[in-house]
Amino acid sequence: xxxxxxxxxxxxxxxxxxxxxxxxxxxxxxxxxxxxxxxxxxxxxxxxxxxxxxxxxxxxxxxxxxxxxxxxxxxxxxxxxxxxxxxxxxxxxxxxxxxxxxxxxxxxxxxxxxxxxxxxxxxxxxxxxxxxxxxxxxxxxxxxxxxxxxxxxxxxxxxxxxxxxxxxxxxxxxxxxxxxxxxxxxxxxxxxxxxxxxxxxxxxxxxxxxxxxxxxxxxxxxxxxxxxxxxxxxxxxxxxxxxxxxxxxxxxxxxxxxxxxxxxxxxxxxxxxxxxxxxxxxxxxxxxxxxxxxxxxxxxxxxxxxxxxxxxxxxxxxxxxxxxxxxxxxxxxxxxxxxxxxxxxxxxxxxxxxxxxxxxxxxxxxxxxxxxxxxxxxxxxxxxxxxxxxxxxxxxxxxxxxxxxxxxxxxxxxxxxxxxxxxxxxxxxxxxxxxxxxxxxxxxxxxxxxxxxxxxxxxxxxxxxxxxxxxxxxxxxxxxxxx
Length: 483
What we know:
single chain, 483 residues
């Protein structure tokens, strides 16, 4: 029996999780009056990683906004019901053993308690404008759900969506499953039916970022994380199934053959992506709970970075361990925006093995730009320890791996330097061309005496400071003993 089979996650709906954060002083209720343009994002950013921010009446809007409720690794583990050290293993177990969803009728689906047909998105929902040069209001925490036109299997992803008009929105689709579905529909001369889900529980949001084969429904990964089948409801205007307990659902179609200008937008690398022609979502209906809550993610802050990094870490760990069982842990550093820089802990058994691990990691996900492999005495979740390993165990002329001209992230501005200088946007198939760098920061398998033995003090990790510190005693250092 896996860890997930033996327990049920304690927080499987958004409102229960927010109540828990509020009860533990991790949710700040903001006074009315915060403007949807920049001010909501500014306040949430200042609280990032310390408290979630709840805006009861942002910009005078009747629908409240929440942000930052998944901005610590420890919080995400807590929502899952596991220790932080068990987070990746629990997510990996869920990804490899998904649980089919259970469909419920509209009468039993809170997300369909209120129905708006022919809706105006801007009037119904409080959509913030986040960064200084963003080209208008954006939905940043919307899970986009669509069906494969060939097989009918669903895919879930989080995509940025610019709201252009009451019934038109522009969407960025990177070269992943949703874009493949859309291209197949467009080839057939058809629109792609979609649902944009806002205000899902923390584990369903996390599951949406699982790196899975194209015909794997991430909602089933959410069921595994919950420890029971996820309740889903069928949309009213198309056949897409959505989490029944979500706050808000926008139903619509990505139109074939239609494009509109989208961007610039401040993305996770903490830079703006260019204004380009993007695909268009036509809105057919909006459904929501009574008194719904709108979730927004402040781009490039901890909630954004962790939602992307933790599922990737779990997938990368499983991928590496299939070829290298002596890979013990991985970490996508926040300094590397939770995507680009990977640290790998390895119990090295052969010289040259770290370079093989580096190459395997580059093949696992095209976003990865730098890999550092360290020994099992280095904590990969501590950037200072990783830097120490590079400083003392790495030599560039023998331990450096460089690969030129590989596919990287199109959102990394350094991959499009030429276009940035000329003002021209490269065609999609030429975007994101990147060099990859790997660093073998491991010690030799064998070495003389204690040359590479890490200094430690016996008992340092076990000493009970509370038992030794005399908290009530004060010393007067100005007094002269014996006077």
